[in-house]
Design brief:
The protein is an alpha/beta fold. Helix content is 34%, strand content 14%.
């Protein structure tokens, strides 16, 4: 499958043949859902915490005798029945991450790329180089290309001027090819790839 290659100024500079094995897979919502869930679970901090009875400061003395008071028996003022007492079965610090095999993660990324191409939301650029490094100039180029919410994926390293010019545009994300991931691809409307990015993704996902 062929796509037109453009410059950042919108000029056509030829065509590129996208590999079927990376961009031609059937779109499976279940695979994409599992990948997004895996990514977001790994991102969760998991630092929520409540104190158990062994962590509450206070006396260990029995508050009153066992029998004859007319009250329910109590063994400690650190019990959850008391104000300032423990929380039973409360959250503890933990990791929310779960495993997905490397083979499945590769499949997920290929499915996300295929989904964008099937929707006609892939643009290929010659390179990501900003001459001036100014946000105003880059925003004008992006609008001329007809892009609003877009993810730009470059080669191994992103041009420093392009990165600086784009970081103040809230609807634009920029990643090197090794940072390409399912969540970021799906959260933006258009996927913009450089020729170098396509070459590296093909090598990485074969």
């Amino acid at each position: 499958m062929k796509l037109e290659v453009k410059t950042l100024d919108g000029k056509s500079v030829g065509e590129i043949d996208l590999p079927e094995s990376v961009f031609g897979l059937p779109v499976r919502a279940d695979i994409l859902q599992r990948m997004v869930r895996w990514q977001l679970a790994r991102r969760q901090a998991g630092t929520h915490k409540t104190k158990g009875i062994s962590e509450i400061s206070g006396t260990t003395a029995k508050p009153f005798k066992q029998k004859g008071t007319g009250h329910a028996r109590q063994g400690s003022k650190r019990s959850p029945q008391y104000r300032g007492g423990a929380t039973i079965f409360g959250p503890v610090v933990r990791s929310h991450a779960h495993d997905l095999t490397k083979k499945f993660r590769k499949l997920g990324l290929k499915t996300a790329l295929s989904a964008k191409l099937a929707a006609g939301k892939v643009v290929v650029l010659e390179d990501l180089v900003s001459e001036s490094g100014k946000t105003r100039d880059l925003l004008a180029q992006v609008k001329a290309l007809g892009l609003e919410k877009a993810l730009f994926i470059g080669g191994n390293e992103v041009d420093i001027k392009f990165a600086l010019a784009s970081r103040n545009i809230p609807t634009i994300d920029v990643l090197p090819q090794q940072g390409a991931n399912v969540y970021d691809i799906l959260r933006r409307d258009t996927l913009v790839l450089t020729k170098e990015a396509i070459k590296h993704l093909e090598e990485r996902l074969q």
